[in-house]
Amino acid sequence: MKQRLPIVEVEWEDAGSHGSWDDEDSHLKQAKPLICYSVGYLASKRADRIILVASRASYQDGSNWQQIPRGCIRSMRYVER
Q: Is 41 within 8 Å of 30 (Cβ atoms)?
């Protein structure tokens, strides 16, 4: 591994869709934010997004990369080791 990365837990809001037939009023009343939680190594903090990686190994940089746009992030906390 190249460097020791911090571990974070991120609460973020995702986009969603609903594919069945509904009347507009009942769908709009039931629509709720889709709140997601991700935990991983914080590989990058950019102005427009963060990048997490789920797994790391001594022989490669990582596996299962996830990008989360900054505008979707509700909170982020560092996890102590």
A: no
Place of tokens 């903090």: 45
Lookup: tokens for 64: 């299962």
What is the phi-psi region of residue 64: left when phi exceeds 0, alpha when psi lies from -120 to 50, beta otherwise?
left
Domain edges within the chain: 7-79
Buried b (16+ CB within 10 A) or exposed e, 16-52: eeeeeeeeeeeeeeeeeeeeeebebbbbeeeeeebbb
Tell me the helices (H) and strands (E) count for the chain, helix number first.
1, 5
pLDDT digits (tens, 9 = 90+) for 17-72: 777 777 888 778 888 889 999 999 999 999 999 999 999 888 777 899 999 999 99
